[in-house]
């Protein structure tokens, strides 16, 4: 257990569970995560290993005896008949039989229907009428010769969800965590290992929770396959439902004209449409028109009287092309079905999550740490839907007056949602609020910038804000910083020609939060060696040592690298890759001395020395002499590269600028080529000593 796990168990006793236990007990049971964690929360909400193992066996036994597998439905029915009564775990849905004026329940896996259920239970749990609810139920069997009477009797039923929670205790416990610890706790709750992701990546994924905490929030996420876009909406909360985008109809989503039965938006907090993308998909235009009105006005109508609902709408789908391809040839909404590829629909989206930044989920990314029992957090988030935090930034910042009302609403709702998730008590520092405000502006800007590609009537918008001291802060999307030649196109403009695109593969420095003299996003650091200060955003790609350092190393015969953290294998590999850059930059006839100053690895010093020795051996015969020394005091903190030609390159992260990638996969582009790796947020400063 980590120190964070200890704190989680101390602050939230009985409300957390170890996330790897879900995989341990699930087996082949097709049960939502919140169902399993409900059971694990009953028997394994502890940090005592013996109690956990005992609880796991109990949960396994409950699932073995009571969870209904479709292929074993006949056996369960037989058990009910022979014993007269049997407890089951199944998804129950209810329909009104208008002929008999009774409610009848159907059991999805057990395969029985027309089971009478009293109206009081239906009124208490109205979601039984739409989509169904996972429940623990007692089923009885009483045969009768009357063919109109079913032998199946519902003895008792309990939805699998928390019955109550203490919100004040939640707020008090939250105050015992730092912001980073709280983000990691939420990230572990979702099921991922926070050590495998950077801060921006964590926040982007936590933005998927906003629809659960904000009413009538419209979110879209498009990206490559396998990035976990739909996971939260299918597994995380009993208050959300995930349906295939191709299966949705007007009666199912809104209301049936024939029966007057209310659709999904009337009963669920979040309705997510999966597999939403696909140009060739057939879509009902009437559905799109009603959906557009609902997303804008929170109401819908198929008759005389308009109806209102609070469900947030989520659209998730896969993209087929890379981001630069879409920006060059079409736009970031290119994959939408034709009926949805409409400026009025797109303009109603509050934010666009860049799914391509998340990356394909690998097995080692899942968490073994502690997180909330997801149903507990789901109830907390639902409680927070009653609050509005959209104005909390105003004491520190002012949005640009250029931002329209619809744009402002999108920014406000995203900001409010993230504030509730991260700072439920409302206490955030100005820097923390600024980070959230930037994400909110970026998400809406991504929508608006693509709209300007679709429709010439949309004007340019200044997505910026000002600090109270009057300092203006401009916000850019990451893909805007990476691909400026592709990004800034208006509707009707021709795609850039090959001549115009020469040199666009150069990495662009992202706009610095507080730009230093000489720093600009519009200048590539490889145009010519010159002094300057550049900032790169987390998840940015296209950054290589050749482009960052190559021009500054040309002609150098002595190069000193100072970095206290050259210990782990990937850090030593970074040194080797820098030496490869030096080998490319030097003349074959030159000899270069490269000296590394670092600190000894306190865990495996012998392996560290072995790896550094392997670099030295590899350099023999290529005109490079590699040496190293360990700082005995272990007090060096500065990280920089100094050449005998007068250049000093200061690096706030040293050489460790890349996020984790597949080190052992010889067929991974990220393994072989640096430009395909995502970077951490970092800064680099180039200084020239004119006396050198």
TrEMBL record:
One of the record's GO molecular function terms: peptidase activity
InterPro entries in alphabetical order: BrxL-like, BrxL_N, MITD1_C, MITD1_C_sf
Domain MITD1 C-terminal phospholipase D-like: 542-686
Keywords: Hydrolase, Protease
Pfam families for this protein: BrxL_ATPase (PF13337), BrxL_N (PF20442), MIT_C (PF16565)
The name this protein goes by in its record: ATP-dependent Lon protease
Key word Acetylation present: no
Domain BREX system Lon protease-like BrxL N-terminal: 11-141
Keyword Iron among UniProt keywords: no
GO process terms (BP): proteolysis
Organism per entry: Stakelama pacifica
């Amino acid at each position: 257990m980590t120190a964070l796990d200890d704190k989680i168990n101390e602050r939230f006793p009985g409300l957390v569970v170890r996330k790897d236990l879900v995989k341990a007990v699930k087996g082949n049971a097709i049960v939502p995560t919140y169902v399993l964690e409900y059971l694990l929360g009953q028997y394994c909400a502890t940090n005592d290993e013996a109690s956990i193992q005992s609880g796991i066996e109990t949960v396994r036994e409950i699932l073995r005896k009571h969870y209904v597998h479709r292929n074993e439905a006949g056996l369960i029915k037989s058990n009910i008949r022979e014993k007269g009564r049997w407890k089951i775990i199944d998804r129950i849905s209810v329909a009104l039989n208008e002929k008999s004026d009774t409610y009848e329940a159907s059991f999805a896996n057990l395969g029985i229907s027309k089971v009478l259920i009293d109206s009081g239970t239906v009124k208490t749990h109205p979601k039984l009428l739409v989509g169904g609810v996972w429940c623990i139920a007692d089923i009885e069997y009483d045969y009768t010769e009357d063919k109109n009477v079913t032998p199946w009797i519902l003895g008792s039923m309990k939805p699998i969800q928390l019955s109550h929670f203490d919100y004040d205790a939640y707020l008090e416990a939250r105050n015992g965590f730092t912001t980073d610890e709280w983000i990691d706790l939420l990230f572990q709750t979702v099921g991922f290992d926070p050590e495998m992701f950077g801060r921006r990546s964590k926040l982007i994924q936590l933005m998927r929770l906003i629809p659960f905490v904000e009413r009538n929030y419209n979110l879209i996420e498009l990206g490559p396959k396998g990035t976990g876009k739909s996971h939260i909406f299918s597994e995380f909360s009993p208050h959300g439902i995930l349906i295939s985008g191709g299966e949705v109809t007007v009666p199912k989503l809104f209301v049936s004209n024939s029966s007057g039965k209310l659709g999904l938006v009337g009963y669920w907090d979040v309705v997510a449409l999966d597999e939403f993308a696909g140009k060739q998909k057939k879509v009902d235009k009437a559905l799109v028109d009603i959906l557009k009105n609902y997303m804008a006005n929170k109401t819908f109508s198929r008759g005389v009287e308009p109806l209102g609902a609070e469900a947030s709408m989520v659209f998730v789908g896969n993209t087929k092309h890379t981001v630069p391809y879409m920006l060059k040839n079409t736009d970031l909404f290119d994959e939408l079905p034709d009926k949805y590829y409409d400026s009025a629909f797109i303009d109603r989206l509050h934010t666009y999550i860049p799914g391509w930044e998340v990356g394909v989920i690998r097995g080692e990314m899942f968490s073994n740490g502690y997180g909330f029992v997801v149903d507990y957090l789901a109830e907390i988030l639902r409680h927070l839907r009653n609050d509005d935090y959209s104005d909390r930034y105003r004491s520190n910042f002012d949005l640009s007056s250029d931002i329209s009302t619809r744009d402002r609403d999108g920014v406000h709702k995203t900001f409010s949602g993230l504030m509730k998730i991260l700072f439920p008590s409302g206490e955030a520092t100005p820097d923390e609020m600024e980070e959230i405000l930037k994400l909110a502006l970026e998400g809406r800007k991504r929508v608006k910038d693509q709209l300007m590609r679709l429709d010439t009537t949309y004007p340019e918008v200044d997505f910026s804000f000002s600090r109270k001291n009057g300092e203006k802060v401009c916000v850019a999307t990451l893909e805007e910083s990476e691909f400026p030649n592709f990004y800034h196109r208006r509707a009707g403009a021709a795609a850039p020609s090959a001549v115009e695109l020469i040199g666009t593969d150069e990495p662009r420095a992202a706009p610095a939060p507080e730009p230093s003299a000489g720093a600009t996003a519009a200048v590539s650091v490889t145009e010519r060696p010159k002094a300057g200060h550049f900032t790169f955003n987390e998840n940015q790609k296209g950054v290589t040592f050749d482009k960052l350092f190559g021009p500054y190393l040309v002609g150098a015969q002595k190069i000193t690298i100072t970095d206290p953290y050259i210990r782990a294998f990937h850090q030593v590999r970074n040194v080797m890759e820098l030496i490869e850059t030096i080998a490319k930059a030097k003349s074959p006839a030159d000899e270069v001395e490269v000296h590394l100053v670092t600190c000894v690895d306190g865990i495996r010093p012998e392996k560290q020395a072995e790896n550094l020795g392997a670099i030295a051996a590899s350099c023999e015969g290529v005109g490079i002499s590699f040496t190293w020394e360990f700082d005995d005091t272990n007090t060096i903190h500065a990280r920089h590269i100094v050449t005998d030609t007068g250049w000093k390159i200061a690096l706030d992260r040293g050489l460790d600028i890349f996020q984790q990638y597949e080190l052992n996969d010889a067929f991974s582009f990220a393994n072989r080529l640096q430009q395909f790796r995502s970077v951490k947020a970092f800064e680099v400063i180039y200084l020239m000593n004119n006396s050198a």
